[in-house]
Task: structure prediction
Amino acid sequence: MKLSFAEDSAEALPLTLLEPGDLPGWLEAQDASTRAWVEASSFAGTLGQALVIPGEGGAPAAALAGYGTQAQRRRGRFALAAAVPALGSARYRIADGLPPEQAEEEALGWLLAGYAFDRYKAQSPAKARLVAPAGIDASRVEVMANAEALTRELINTPAADMGPDALEAAARALAAEFGAQCDVTVGDALLEGNFPMIHTVGRAASQAPRLIDMCWGQSGPQLVLVGKGVCFDTGGLNLKPGASMGLMKKDMGGAANVLGLAHMIMSLELPLRLRVLIPAVENAIDGNAFRPQDILTSRKGLTVEINNTDAEGRLVLADALALADESTPDLIISMATLTGAARVAVGPDLAPFFSTRPDHADALRQAATKAADPVWELPFWEPYEPMIEPGIADLDNAPSGGQAGALTAALFLRRFVDNAPYVHFDIYGWQPTAAPARPKGGAMQGVRAILTALPEMLKL
Result:
């Protein structure tokens, strides 16, 4: 599915955005026929409303979209996208009512509203298309929209069709599209390559565990993206209850998000060296599944006591982070659907992150506002370090007590990064209820904020 702006032409209908209080003044400037049509409708300028206005002979001549109040727009994003479903399948150009500072956000929202997951069932008919508003970088907006569509598609695909082998295929396809190098270490070769925890977590599954390693770019600072690629998580021997297992196809959401970010970086040809590391596994149950109380030795040499096999994401990320750190890159960013605690703390809409550098955190906060991609900083709180130290091993993968779960997971991961600035995102990767430009299903979170912040973080 390609998301793109429409070409401007005479067929593009002029679309006016109206707040509720602006409608009376707008009507006064219209001819009698238009006034009668609008007054006979229920259109009031409320958020999500749309009205197509006929011209001579009854053919559509123009349209109105409700833009809601400023208070309504502050409570959400992509206000214009709320009206897209009511605009049919015509082509539109915005004639009036769009604040210039909101043009990019609303244009992106319109494109994202055109996404539908239709791999298994035909979805809604063709949606309204938009001519790119004046003053925006249309190509950049299209890149962001299509990268987000890729991320959504990967997360939405069930594990039967998105296991470690399919996730590898998706990474290889992306690498081929942009001329990147993609190397994959599979199965027992993980032991030979010193990725013991990736192997341990994934060895009980029908598809072999693997580490995907994609590189692109020849010059500039080095950025390493590490994405959790647990294609399905049963919880292992600490088996999840059915209600908790129902959404576990999305447990590779971190991998999907870093692939979406990589798509953006390579499409926009940012002047950097990019490396993407994805430990791709399925946490399954078999006779060789790892067990509670096992003690694993990581790539870095740190030992880890397993107190819950359902805390597997941090194990596979740890080996990948250790590899990333060995090259002393300029920045490491990990993304993972890691803890339920993060969702309890900030809900599904915010992307919580941790940063070892305050200036990087500041850059992300500022970029998030600009990119309409909300994030929230949580701390690497060092007084909690003893909580991840079990006594008979260097680290505990699941501290008892149930408190500060997102923070202890982040502290665990930080133990594997010594040589580079580090940012960790503990995302949800899922839109639980439909919202403007965001259908229920797989979600990209924090990626546009990262993209917008990278020039500052890496001094590009």
